[in-house]
Write a structure and sequence with these properties.
mainly alpha, 3-stranded antiparallel beta sheet, Integrase-like_cat_sf, 56% helix, 300 residues, single chain
C-alpha cells in the first residue's frame, strides 16, 4: 500500500519542481519498516516509532517531517490516514548563522583572488571573476560552476535546470557584464575548445572542492576570518541581505520587491527569501519598529 502511495506523492511533488532525493530514501525506508505491520492506513504510532529509530535527534526530525508530508497527502484522499504530530524530543533543523560580507570585505576578497599564483596564468582572473559574480548575483555555487559559454547574454546569464528543476534569466549590472567579457576574452585565448565558463589550469571544469579550498585561501589573504566559519554560500546570503536592506518602505512596495528577489534567487517559494530577514540586525530592527508602530495604531 505505502509503496504505491509514495510513488504518487513523489510524482506530484516533483511535478512542482522538488527533487526530494533524501525524502524518497527516507520514505522508502518507512515503507519497509511499516510493511510487516500490515496496517491498512498510515498510523501515527508506526510513523513515530520509525522516526524514533533514527541515529540522532536531527535525523529523527527529518524523518518526522518527511512522513508528515506523505501523511497529509494521503489524508486528503482518505481521512483514515493519520497525520503524525511533530515530536518535541526531535531537535528542529537549524541553519548555520551566515557571515554577511560587507562591500569592503567583498572588494578585498576579489582583490586577493586577483593576486593568486601563478600570476601570469588564467587562475587569478578565473577566481576573482567567479567570486565577484557570486557576490553580486547571489548565484548558488553549483549554478556558477555549471555555466557554459552559450549561457552568456550581453546583459544577462541563463541558469538552466537549477535546484528546483527551473531555468531562469539573471540580469547583470553593466560592470558585471564587462568583467565577464574581460574574463571570456582571456579565457578563449587559453582554452577555446572547452565550453564550461570557469575552468581550471588543466582546462577542465572547476570542481567545488577546488573552489572551496581557494575560497578559504583567499579569505585568509583578505583578512576575512571570523569566529564563525565563513562559507562560500555566505556570498549568496550577503547579496540577499543587502538587497533586502535596500527594500523600499511601505507594504505595497515590499511585496513586489520580495517576489522579484525570490525569483531572481531561484527560490521555490517566497518563504525561503523571508528567512534572510533574520540575518541582518538592521532588518530585524526595522521589522520590530514596524510592528511597534502597527500595535500603537491598533490601540484605542
Amino acid at each position: 500500500m505505502l509503496t504505491a502511495a509514495i510513488d504518487r506523492y513523489l510524482e506530484l511533488r516533483r511535478a512542482l519542481g522538488y527533487k526530494l532525493e533524501r525524502d524518497e530514501q527516507m520514505l522508502r525506508s518507512f515503507a519497509r519498516f511499516a510493511a510487516p505491520r500490515a496496517d491498512s492506513h498510515l498510523t501515527s504510532h508506526t510513523a513515530l516509532e520509525w522516526a524514533a529509530c533514527a541515529a540522532t535527534p536531527r535525523q529523527c526530525d527529518r524523518r518526522t517531517r518527511a512522513v508528515i508530508g506523505l501523511a497529509r497527502f494521503l489524508h486528503a484522499e482518505d481521512p483514515r490516514h493519520e497525520i503524525p504530530p511533530r515530536v518535541h524530543a526531535c531537535a528542529a533543523q537549524t541553519r548555520p548563522l551566515p557571515h554577511i560580507f560587507s562591500s569592503e570585505e567583498i572588494g578585498r576578497l576579489v582583490q586577493a583572488a586577483a593576486q593568486l599564483p601563478p600570476h601570469r596564468s588564467l587562475r587569478p582572473l578565473t577566481f576573482s571573476t567567479l567570486f565577484g559574480l557570486l557576490a553580486v548575483t547571489g548565484l548558488r555555487v553549483s549554478e556558477a560552476l555549471h555555466l557554459r559559454l552559450d549561457d552568456l547574454r550581453p546583459d544577462a546569464i541563463v541558469i538552466r535546470e537549477t535546484k528546483f528543476h527551473k531555468s531562469r534569466m539573471v540580469l547583470l549590472h553593466p560592470s558585471t557584464s564587462a568583467a565577464l567579457t574581460r574574463y571570456v576574452e582571456r579565457r578563449q585565448r587559453v582554452a577555446s575548445n572547452y565550453d564550461h565558463l570557469f575552468i581550471s589550469l588543466k582546462r577542465t571544469p572547476l570542481c567545488y572542492e577546488t573552489v572551496w579550498r581557494t575560497f578559504r585561501e583567499v579569505c585568509s589573504s583578505a583578512g576575512v576570518q571570523h569566529s564563525v566559519r565563513v562559507r562560500l554560500h555566505d556570498l549568496r546570503h550577503s547579496m540577499a541581505v543587502h538587497a533586502l536592506e535596500a527594500c523600499p518602505h511601505g507594504r505595497e512596495q515590499v511585496t513586489p520587491h520580495m517576489l522579484a528577489l525570490s525569483t531572481y534567487l531561484g527560490h521555490a517559494t517566497v518563504r525561503g527569501t523571508y528567512w534572510y530577514l533574520q540575518s541582518s540586525p538592521q532588518l530585524m530592527h526595522d521589522v520590530a519598529d514596524a510592528a511597534e508602530t502597527w500595535m500603537r495604531r491598533a490601540q484605542p
